[in-house]
Structures are given as structure tokens and as C-alpha cells.
Amino acid sequence: MDTTVAQPIAPEDIAPGQFVTPLTKTLVRFPNLYSDDVYVNKTEPFPITYVPRVRAPVRVVEVCLPFVLIETPKGKVRMIDLRRLRLARVSDRFGQAMFNRAQAAPAPKAKAEEAEEDSVSKWFE
Length: 125
Fold this sequence. Notes:
The protein has helices at 92-104, 110-122, and strands at 7-8, 19-29, 46-50, 58-64, 67-71, 77-81, 85-90. By secondary structure, the chain is an alpha+beta fold.
């Protein structure tokens, strides 16, 4: 059995047709929004990097750095901003398998489908 590893990918190496998934997301926070002692001495906005919750890779449709147009397994098309995300490329075989499974899955009820699409949108926000 072949084992593949998701590889971090530089923005300039992203191309249409690739399957990618977010590795990390960076948010900028302002110190006056926090009351914790950790943030009291900060006077400038500061970045917070975290690992987002991910359910499936997405397919790259088009690239215009720093923006990437992506398609989710459910067919939703979105634009993501690479200034906030660090992406990893997954193998074509793995990405295609995820897309095939998502497309073959029975359609959930309208409310459940709507909730799932909302959660998909949050992967890249």
C-alpha cells in the first residue's frame, strides 16, 4: 500500500487542478478586545496562528495570487485569501477519492445540507 504525505505548498506553486487543504490559519487580533493579563502589555495588533478544522481537501480552480478560487467536494466555489492561510497539497489520488465519496453520498435533508455547506465555508474564513 502506497503512503502519501500532504506537503506544504508555496503560494507560487499552486496550480489549477491540484487538491489542497489548509494547514494553518492566521488571524490578527487587537489587544483592547481582551482582558486577559497576557494581552495587557500589547499595544499593537498581533497574529494568532491555529490549525483549522478540516473535513476534506478542495480542488483549485484558478489562481490570481494572493487569491485562489477553490471548489469543495459538494460543488461550492469560493475564493480564499492566502495571506491568511497556509495550504498543503494532497495527492491527486487522495483528493479524487474524497471528491468521489462526497459526490456519491446520499443527499442529506435540506437543513442538514445547509448546515454542512456553512461548515465547509468556515474552513477557509
